[in-house]
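Figure 3 (text version): structure tokens given as input.
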């Protein structure tokens, strides 16, 4: 994925310096893109990761593989979070292994799905969700020579009391800067929390040693999970 994104990126901007960032899984993809660029001798001015564990920690942060039932629960939580809603307790009453049509019908009744999303589209979306998370589980990260700026949502489910960098410090030879932002994992993409994210990003980019917010030759690219 990172290699293909880089091909598209370099078609628009053949040479660095580059500024990359991503939210959730997009942060892991942005990290691998930055690592590959650095290995080619390209300059990565900024790498910003928004609210996700470092690869190698496992999806739950404990290094263990996630079972299918948990993946389905996370998918429901993700759909609710993207709509700005907590996951209702009623979704938790579904028996383990309940068929997708039953889960889909319950989610529709609770208003957790867009009105125009049908069962077939929901099934495809879940398959993409599952495939992406399994890719993260199998991905082996290598050290990155630069620094990483980590933005963490205050109310996020990504948390490790023993490591405020969520494992990124072990991968970034240049160190990790940490900023905490209001909201949860999904709320940081919506108003009013997204304004705080924008301000933090603007401050991070304005601090570039090249001076201006967007110096000649430098462009910023972001990936969403």
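Below: residues designed for each position.
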């Amino acid at each position: 994925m990172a290699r293909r994104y880089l091909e598209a990126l370099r078609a628009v901007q053949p040479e660095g310096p580059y500024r990359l960032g991503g939210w959730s899984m997009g942060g892991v993809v942005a990290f691998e893109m930055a690592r590959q660029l650095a290995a080619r001798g390209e300059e990565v001015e900024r790498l910003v990761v928004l609210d996700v564990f470092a690869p190698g920690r496992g999806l739950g942060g404990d290094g263990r593989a996630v079972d299918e039932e948990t993946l389905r629960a996370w998918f429901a939580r993700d759909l609710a979070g993207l709509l700005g809603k907590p996951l209702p307790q009623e979704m938790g009453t579904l028996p383990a292994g309940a068929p997708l049509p039953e889960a889909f019908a319950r989610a529709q009744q609770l208003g957790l799905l867009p009105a125009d999303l049908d069962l077939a589209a929901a099934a495809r979306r879940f398959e993409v969700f599952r495939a992406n998370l399994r890719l993260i589980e199998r991905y082996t990260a290598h050290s990155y020579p630069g620094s990483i700026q980590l933005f963490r949502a205050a109310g996020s489910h990504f948390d490790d009391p023993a490591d405020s960098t969520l494992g990124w410090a072990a991968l970034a030879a240049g160190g990790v800067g940490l900023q905490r932002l209001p909201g949860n994992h999904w709320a940081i993409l919506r108003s009013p929390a997204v304004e705080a994210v924008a301000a933090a990003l603007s401050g991070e980019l304005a601090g570039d040693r090249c001076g201006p917010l967007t110096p000649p030759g430098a462009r910023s690219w972001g990936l969403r999970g």
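Confidence is low (pLDDT under 50) at residues 208-218.
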